[in-house]
Design a protein that fits this description.
- The chain is α/β, with parallel strands linked by helices and 272 residues long.
- The chain is built from seven helices and eleven strands.
- The longest helix is centred in the middle third of the chain and has 18 residues.
- The chain is globular and about 65 Å long.
- The N and C termini lie far apart (44 Å).
Length: 272
Amino acid sequence: MNDTSPTVGPSHTPTVLLTNDDGWGAPGLVALARVIASFADLVVVAPRREQSGVGHGITIHKRIDVERASMDGAREAYVVDGTPADCAKLAIRALLPDRPPAFVVSGLNNGPNVGVNVLYSGTVGAALEATINGVGAVAVSKEFGDELDFDGAADAVAGLLQKIIARGLPPWRVLNINVPGRPLPEIAGVRVTRHGVSGFDESYREVDAELGEGRRRFALQGVMTLRDDDGRTDAEALRDGYISVTPLGLDLTSRAVAIDGLAEWSWVLSQA
C-alpha cells in the first residue's frame, strides 16, 4: 500500500485528489485547486456542506449521494453528501477505482489544525483515510485572520506540495501542514515539527434559556492555548511565524508510557 509511483493523467502529470472539510466552494479549496492544477492532473471530491470538527468520521448507516460538478482547473469534480473521510474513501474506492490518485491533498482549512485540534479535524481525517486506502496524503491549514488570504497561503505551500507529491511518503503516514497567519513576506520559513498538545481552552455557554420542558441548549466556545514549551511542536512553529510540517501516523501508541513497564504490572482479572 501507499505505492509512491505516480498515477499519471492524460498530460503525463500525477493525478492528485483534492478534498476538504470546509465544504464545496470554500475559498481554501478553490485556492488549492488553482495551485495544484498548475503541476498535476486534478480531481476534486469535496463535501457539500461544512464538516469542521467531524474528525475521521465516516457514513455507515445511510447512503451517500454524489453529484457531478465542475471546478476551474479540475479534470473531474464531485460533490458528496458526506464527511471528508467519506470523500477520500469514495474517490479511491468507487469514483476512481481504475485510476486511483497518486496523492491526496486535504484543505486548505480555515483555521489551524495543530495539537489536540488534529484529533477533531475533518481535514486531517480525510488525509488519514487516504493513507488507510493506500494513497499518500497531506492536510493543509492556515491560521485564522485576514493578514494572509487563502491564495497567499496556497502559494506559500505550492512548492512544498509539489516536492512531497514527487517524492511520496512511507506507508501509513501523512504530513500535516499549517501556515501562519501573517503576510507572505513575513513567513520565517519551514519547520519540521512534532505533534504537540496545545489546543483550545474550552467552555460551554448556555443559550436559549426559554426552551422549557426540561430542555437546555449549549454552545461551545474556547480560546487557543499554547501548552507546549520545547520549541519543537506544531503550535510553537506557528507562533514563531514558520510553516509547520508534522508527520502523522495511524499508530496512536504513547511512547511516553513504556509498554514493557506496563507488561510487568500484576494484571489480575476480577472475578464475577
